[in-house]
Amino acid sequence: MKLPLPLIQLIEELAKLPSIGKKSAKRLAFSLLLRPEQEALALAEAIVKAREQIRSCSQCFGLTDADLCAICSDPRRDQEILCVVEDPRNIFTIESSGIFKGLYHVLQGAISPIHGIPPEKLRIEELHQRVRLDSIQELILATNPTLEGEATAHYLTELFKENVPTISRIARGMPVGGDLEFTDATTLSRAFEGRTVFSHL
Predict the structure, then answer these.
(1) Tell me, what's the pLDDT at 201?
(2) Residues 169-193: what's their mean pLDDT?
(3) Which residues pair with 117 in a beta bridge?
(4) How many CA atoms are closer than 13 Å to the CA of 140, on its beta-carbon side?
């Protein structure tokens, strides 16, 4: 029996989400249809509201519903230490470990000539402005341990080695080829505690 077109379209859209295959998308679609209408509409409203209200923090480019995110606007954070990550999701992963008390800067990607992402496409100029204006004493490079992440870390080290007293890289507790988003809190804590001065590697 052929599925109704709206159901097919719902399955196709759900299948575009990360880690959701066709079978999982089909199960989710049927689940949404079988739930009370109020619950399905609440989910749809939450998605629309998140898309409309969540934006990039004007300082760190993390996710927020205000001009400045809760971290950037918190005076208790260490203003002289800046942790550089690729993706806004990485901030939430690191925060869940409770190990880091400084500020963040989201590059919104990593250098990848193969995928047409040169340094100019990242938030590196904004990082340069923060380093220049905010008296940053340490840059912690927490880019993912992939080829692109390593290349980005090396590029940033060369770019800022004359401007920042300490440039460090999170330690090798992170698996090579891994992603911060899927790293457990214990591994992440060890990676931060064991970070090394990048220029000495």
Answers:
(1) 45
(2) 69
(3) 112
(4) 23
